[in-house]
Design goal:
Elements (H helix, E strand, L loop, with lengths): L20 H9 L7 H8 L1 E6 L11 E8 L2 E8 L5 H6 L7 H17 L3 E7 L6 H5 L2 H14 L4 E10 H5 L6 E5 L3 E3 L3 H8 L6 H8 L3 H6 L5 E3 L10 H19 L4 H14 L6
Helix pairs in contact: 1-9, 2-11, 4-6, 8-9
Length: 283
């Protein structure tokens, strides 16, 4: 059942007593102990075999892709991975993929399409890496290509936003037949701090910006941008990662079953119609 619980108070860096519900969701999505993609992959998949490299430039550890078994079903998983400690954060580039990461993701998606394996993507990034080297290697083109090719995949695609869904960096893996979102995750075109710096000329007004951005799971479901809210254990996924993984497992299983009987053409049309409806508020 979709969750409508109020976000719990959290003890995380920058927490403020009396913070708005949207800002508390942002803090929970960024909680230092919140499960990341590999934590879910370890609990949800068996026989996981990771794929490395984009066959062009190199490997990007901010994107994890590989084949595995989910509930006895062969699947492809493509996920964004943050680090836990300083060394991991640097290795994973704080979960901000570069062009080679998105091209690795695309290679994995095309393999899934070729062999008819359902695709599961996990979104958890503050955004695509904005560095000069990424721009030189075609960051925007890599994201745009993923959007186009994901729309054409003749396989079931289920997307789950498990933490931060940051702008095009997340959307590059987010074109799915079904889009799930954990109840304390956030998904937005821009971070609250960056939005506040642009709109209010003051990044300290991030809490005010978070409320205006409508970035919570309840907001996005109300706008028709996601399909289902996955509940989390009391206090948030960081309180019981195993229970959080089981809740996600139930929803992934159910939605993959719902899509299993559709043909490749029907899956593409289903995905196309879903995204064409977004932003249409008139009959």
């Amino acid at each position: 059942m979709d969750s409508e619980q109020s976000p719990p108070e959290v003890e995380a860096p920058g927490n403020q007593v009396g913070a708005s519900p949207a800002w508390r969701r942002v803090q929970l999505a960024r909680h230092p102990k919140r499960p990341h993609s590999l934590d879910y992959i370890e609990r949800l998949l068996t026989d996981f075999q990771e794929i490395h490299g984009d066959r062009s430039f190199g490997d990007d550890p901010a994107i994890v892709a590989g084949l595995g078994q989910f509930e006895g079903r062969p699947v492809m998983v493509v996920a964004e991975q943050k680090g836990r400690d300083t060394k991991q954060k640097l290795f994973r580039n704080f979960g901000m993929p570069k062009p080679e990461g998105y091209r690795k993701a695309l290679r994995a998606m095309q393999i899934a399409g070729k062999f008819g394996r359902p695709l599961i993507t996990l979104l958890d990034t503050p955004g695509a890496y904005p560095g000069i080297d990424a721009e030189e290697r075609g960051q925007a083109e890599a994201i745009a290509r993923n959007l186009r090719e994901m729309a054409r995949l003749p396989i079931p695609v289920v997307v789950a936003c498990i933490g931060e869904g940051g702008s095009g960096g997340a959307l590059a893996l987010g074109v799915g037949n079904t889009v799930l979102m954990l109840e304390n995750a956030v998904y937005s075109v821009i971070s609250p701090e960056s939005c506040a710096a642009i709109i209010y000329r003051d990044s300290a007004k991030a809490e005010q910006a978070a409320a205006a951005l409508k970035l919570t799971a309840e907001d996005l479901r109300g706008l028709g941008l996601i399909d289902c809210i996955v509940p989390e254990p009391p206090g948030g996924a960081q309180e019981d990662p195993a229970a959080a993984a089981e809740l996600l497992r139930e929803h992934l299983h159910r939605h993959l079953e719902e899509l299993a009987d559709l043909t490749g053409e029907e899956l593409v049309e289903h995905r196309y119609a879903k995204f064409r409806r977004m932003g249409n508020f008139f009959a």
